[in-house]
């Protein structure tokens, strides 16, 4: 597209992540925002675009999603390489400084992302076979980045970037717009069967060659099939992973969707669910006494379980029944509100085995993390989500969590939103008298006017964030050769909580994905480990990795009696958690600039949706005095349109529609009836 953009938009979004934020409750006549590409931003961009606003969605990165993104294997290597090699970029530039007037001042935005730190990569798979085989479009293998576990450099941290090094962007092209073939209004498609086809127009199906043109990248490049015989049984080499790299979709943040969570409801109500497919998590696991075992979830699972005695089954069902309606029985937990949920479970008639299951596999908390009320709420939420789409409460989007921001971006584009990747913003222009932001200046020196701005936290300078106290998330991504709990089916999607062993440490959440989720190649598993940071990611997570897995070595290849899965490739990194930070912590933040945080450490995505509801922009888009009317076009191919405006505007519009359609259809009765119903509704509200 042309470098020059229109000089004014209704809504300007900086960042393609998943944050849906809303502006103060003002009229939408000149609604204007500025966002960056993260999940919350993508949601609000879709909402504004669908309501008829002019939306510009900008991101300095070359991929969708920010820290919510998913990468192919070669794309992840590009992301790691640029993060390692990135150097400081001077923000001061005469291109925008010359455009600042006397009554204005500039807030320079950082071009350096410091949300990722302590990156460590280890390759355990053999690298001596088929070294010349590479994925189509993949970058050359960076030997300084991917460290062999067999070399003495594996323990050396010299290849690690310094803490102040920034995360740069991956060289990827924009997502090709995909038109849905069906329009389910109130259904969420959950794919229960194994998916074998390759997704069309997927973000990670594009290649990552710096010199490749956009036209060449947009074409679907078929994946070369591996016809070479493996010299040894069960042997997976690094070159095979590279060659099948586009089979991988590796998430930077590991989350699941509660089947009755806020995000699922939003996907259904907005019809964004038609752009994605989901699979149900097939099992919930527990790690106890050095063994991994499956936890019964449903009533049928409980009574069919051989791990529980008949007495334990009755005790568990009685307690879970109480948790479903615990608010009606306040006397049962009165006096225990100030203690932990773990201490409360000890007062109930539950065996240690049941206490462990409820605490770690159902409430999914730790001994010290949750109060009694929080634990009861978590247990009720777990039970409430059971049975909607499967035997467990969780769903996972095919092709990874990075699909969700792209789905909302796709809806925004369908309704006229303009997307511009690799387009950085130099500064915010603030009026000295009103102390409000009035415009932005982009990398080409162009001034774009807006009334409201939404900026991702990572774009602010160190000076503006000097009073902010960030938390950190420890993350690990493993590629393994088998599941942590082997069963008859090799297509299992599992979640496991490993409790902390030492005071001050946090429980580790493990999510294991099989190839049917379209996130890894056949014969491998993709394992995500997540916890709140107390040290570096490797220090936090390596003890759990050692309990569940072993390194993939030549000596173990022929040993079929090995019980633990073998690690082929491992990545550790720390990610900034900027959720739940008050805007007052940001220094000299203009009143019409709103901050969007990155991913949090929670399992679900409800925090991103709640963040949107807490900010006034959502209330502006969905006016409290308005009513939603659904109008279907005569063409079956066109999508239904939802409008949400004040009643007096609806009545005025319907009166005009009545005149027009009476001439075209000779049947104004339906619109007359609708006008009468809305008039009665208006009178009721006035009363």
Structure description:
It contains 19 helices and 27 strands. The strands form 6 sheets. Strands 6, 7, 11, 12, 19, 20, 21, 22, 23 and 24 form a 10-stranded mixed sheet that branches. Strands 14-3-1-18-25 form a 5-stranded parallel sheet, covered by helices on one side. A 4-stranded antiparallel sheet has the order 5-15-16-17, with no helix packed on it. Residues 18-37, 136-186, 193-231 and 616-644 have low confidence and may be disordered.
Question: What topology emerges from the helices and strands here?
Answer:
Blueprint: E1 11-14, E2 17-18, H1 39-50, E3 55-58, E4 70-71, H2 73-85, H3 94-97, E5 104-108, E6 116-123, E7 147-148, H4 214-218, H5 238-243, E8 250-251, E9 257-258, H6 262-269, E10 278-280, E11 283-288, E12 291-295, H7 299-304, H8 310-324, H9 330-333, H10 341-347, H11 352-362, H12 372-385, E13 394-397, H13 403-414, E14 418-420, E15 425-431, E16 437-442, E17 447-449, E18 453-456, E19 471-480, E20 494-498, E21 508-513, E22 525-532, H14 537-548, E23 550-551, H15 554-557, E24 566-577, E25 593-596, H16 606-614, H17 616-621, E26 626-631, E27 641-646, H18 647-665, H19 669-686
Parallel strand pairs: 1-3, 1-18, 3-14, 6-7, 11-20, 18-25, 23-24
Antiparallel strand pairs: 4-8, 5-15, 6-24, 9-13, 10-13, 11-12, 15-16, 16-17, 19-22, 19-24, 20-21, 21-22, 26-27
């Amino acid at each position: 597209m042309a470098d020059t953009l229109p000089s004014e938009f209704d809504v300007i979004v900086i960042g393609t992540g998943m944050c849906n934020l809303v502006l103060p409750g003002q009229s939408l006549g000149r609604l204007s925002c500025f966002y960056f590409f993260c999940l919350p931003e993508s949601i609000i961009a879709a909402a504004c675009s669908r309501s008829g606003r002019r939306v510009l969605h900008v991101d300095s990165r070359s991929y969708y999603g920010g820290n919510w993104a998913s990468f192919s294997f070669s794309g992840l290597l590009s992301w790691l390489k640029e993060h390692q090699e990135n150097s400081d970029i001077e923000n001061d530039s005469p291109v925008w400084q010359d455009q600042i007037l006397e009554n204005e001042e500039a807030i320079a935005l950082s071009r350096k992302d410091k949300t990722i730190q302590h990156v460590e990569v280890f390759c355990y798979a053999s690298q001596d076979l088929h070294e010349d085989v590479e994925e189509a479009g993949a970058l050359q293998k960076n030997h300084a980045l991917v460290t062999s576990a067999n070399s003495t450099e594996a323990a050396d941290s010299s290849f690690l970037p310094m803490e102040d090094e920034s995360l740069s962007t991956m060289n990827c092209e924009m997502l090709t717009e995909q038109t849905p073939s069906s329009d389910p209004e109130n259904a969420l498609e959950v794919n229960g069967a194994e998916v074998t086809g390759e997704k069309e127009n997927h973000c990670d199906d594009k290649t990552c060659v710096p010199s490749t043109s956009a036209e060449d990248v947009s074409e679907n490049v078929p994946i070369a099939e591996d016809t070479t015989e493996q010299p040894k049984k069960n042997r997976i080499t690094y070159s095979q992973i590279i060659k099948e790299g586009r089979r991988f979709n590796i998430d930077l943040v590991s989350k699941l969707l509660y089947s009755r969570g806020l995000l699922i409801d939003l996907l259904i109500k907005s019809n964004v669910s038609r752009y994605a497919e989901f699979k149900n998590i097939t099992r919930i696991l527990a790690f106890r006494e050095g063994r991994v075992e499956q936890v019964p979830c449903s009533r049928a699972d409980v009574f069919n379980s051989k791990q529980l005695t008949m007495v334990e089954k009755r005790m568990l069902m009685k307690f879970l029944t109480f948790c479903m309606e615990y608010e009606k029985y306040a006397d049962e937990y009165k006096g225990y509100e100030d203690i932990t949920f773990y201490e409360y479970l000890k007062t109930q008639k539950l065996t240690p085995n049941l206490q462990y299951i409820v605490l770690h596999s159902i409430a999914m908390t730790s001994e010290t993390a949750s109060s009694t009320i929080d634990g009861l709420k978590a247990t009720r939420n777990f039970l409430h989500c059971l049975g909607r789409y499967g035997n467990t409460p969780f769903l996972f989007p095919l092709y990874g969590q990075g699909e969700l921001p792209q789905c909302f971006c796709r809806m925004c584009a369908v309704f006229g939103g303009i997307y511009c990747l690799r387009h950085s913003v130099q500064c915010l222009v603030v009026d000295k008298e009103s102390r409000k932001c009035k415009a932005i200046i982009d990398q080409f020196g162009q001034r774009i006017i807006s009334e409201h701005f939404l900026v991702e936290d990572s774009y602010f300078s160190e000076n503006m964030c000097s009073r902010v106290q960030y938390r950190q998330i420890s993350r690990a991504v493993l590629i393994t050769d088998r599941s942590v709990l082997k069963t008859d089916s090799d297509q299992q999607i599992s979640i496991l909580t490993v409790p902390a062993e030492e005071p001050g440490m946090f429980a580790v959440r493990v999510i294991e994905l099989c190839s049917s989720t379209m996130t890894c190649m056949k014969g491998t598993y993709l394992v995500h480990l997540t916890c709140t940071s107390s040290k570096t990611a490797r220090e936090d997570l390596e003890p759990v990795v050692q309990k569940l897995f072993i390194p993939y070595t030549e000596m173990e290849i022929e040993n079929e009696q090995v019980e633990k899965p073998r690690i082929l490739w491992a990545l550790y990194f720390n990610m900034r958690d900027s959720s739940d930070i008050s805007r007052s912590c940001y220094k000299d933040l203009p009143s019409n600039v709103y901050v969007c945080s990155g991913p949090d450490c929670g399992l679900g995505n409800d925090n991103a949706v709640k963040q949107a509801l807490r900010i006034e922009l959502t209330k502006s888009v969905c006016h409290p005095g308005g009513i939603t009317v659904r109008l279907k076009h005569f063409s079956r191919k066109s999508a239904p349109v939802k409008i949400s405006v004040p009643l007096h505007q609806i009545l005025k519009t319907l009166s005009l529609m009545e005149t027009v359609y009476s001439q075209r259809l000779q049947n104004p009765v339906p619109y007359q009836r609708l006008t009468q119903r809305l008039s009665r509704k208006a009178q009721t509200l006035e009363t």
